[in-house]
Amino acid sequence: MAAPPAIPRRGLFIGGGWREPTLGRRIPVINPATEETIGDIPAATAKDVELAVAAARDAFTRDGGSAWSRASGAARAKYLNAIASKIKEKITYLALLETLDSGKPKDEAVADMVAPSLAAGCTAVLKPSELASLTCLELGVICEEIGLPSGVLNIITGLGPDAGAPIASHPDVDKVAFTGSTETGKRIMTAAAQMVKPVSLELGGKSPLVIFDDVADIDKGYSLGHYVDKLLAANFGSSSMGREQAERFWPGLENYLSMKQVTKYCSDELYGWYQRPSKL
Taken in order 181, 110, 176, 141, is the CA torsion positive or negative? Predict the structure, then answer.
C-alpha cells in the first residue's frame, strides 16, 4: 500500500494570497482512523476575519463591480469552469486528503463548493469546520492556479467562536450560510438578527426513516433484520456527516425489536463497527 501524501502546510487564503494568522496560532489535524497528528491548519481570529471580509468587499466593488459582481455570467463561468476542471484533475488527491482529515470514505469524499454564490456574482469568505479543512484550503491553491480575481473567494480556518462567530456578526457580511449543529445555528441567527441579515441554515437531524408495522414487504418474506441492516448501513456507512445519512429511525415494531436490541449488533466485526442483524 502506498504511503499517504504529506499534508501541505497552508496559511489563510485572503485577497488572492496566503498569509499566516495574525496571532500565529495553528490547530493540529488529527487522522480519525489512527488518532495521530498528521499536520496543522491556521487558527484565524477576528482580525483575520476583518481582513478576509475587507478583501471580499473590495473584490465585490472593484472597478464599479466590473471585475466580478457586474461582470457577465459568461465571464464568471470561465473561472468557475476552470475551477471545476482543476477539481476533476485533482479529485483523487483531494478525496484522499478528505479521508485523512475527516475519515469520510474516498469514494464519497466531495468538497463542498461555493460555486452557486460565486456564479451569482457574490464574493465570499469560506470558513470550513476545523475538523475538515484540508480540501477547502486546497481550493485556494486551485483559485491561484486558474487566476481567480483576488478577493473573490477567501478561505479562513479556525475554531467556531474565534473565526466563525466574527463572520456571522460582521456588518459587511450580507448573508450567512451555515451547515451544522442546531445550537450553533441559534447563535448565528441571534447575531445576524441584530442587523436583520438573511441566513440559510441546515441544522441537526434531517432524514428520519419510519417503518410501519403493516409494511407489505414483511409479508413477502423480508425480516425486520433486513430493514435494520439497511438503516444502520445508511446511518453509519460514512464516518462523517452526509446528506445521505438516515440519522434517526423509529421502527414502530415494538413486538419485534427494541432500541436495546439494536445495540447488540454494533461490534468490531465486519466493517469494524457493525455486524449485520442476521439473527433477528
Answer: positive
DSSP structure string for 52-82: HHHHHHHHHHGGGGTTTTTS-HHHHHHHHHH
Count of alpha carbons within 13 angstroms of residue 121, beta-carbon side: 13
pTM, full prediction: 0.74
Tell me what the mean pLDDT of segment 51-60 comes to: 97
Distance CA 18, CA 141 (A): 9
Q: Are 49 and 57 within 8 A, CB to CB?
A: no
pLDDT single digits (tens) 249-270: 444 444 444 443 444 433 333 3
Nearest to 133 by CA among 171, 106, 160: 160
3-state secondary structure of 148: coil
Q: CA angle, corner 158, sides to 146 and 151, nearest 5?
A: 30
Dihedral (Cα; 90, 101, 53, 124), 10-degree rounding? 40
Could you report the per-residue pLDDT of 172-206, keeping only the tens digit for each? 999 999 988 889 999 999 999 999 999 999 887 65
Q: Which long-range contacts (CB under 8 A, 24 or more apart) does 181-187 make?
A: 184/160
Q: Confidence band (pLDDT; 50, 70, 90) for 69?
A: very high
Strand partners, 169: none
Give the sign of the dihedral formed by CA 37, CA 39, CA 44, CA 45.
positive
Query: SS3 for 143?
Result: helix
Burial of 154 (0-12, 13-18, 19+ CB in 10 A): buried
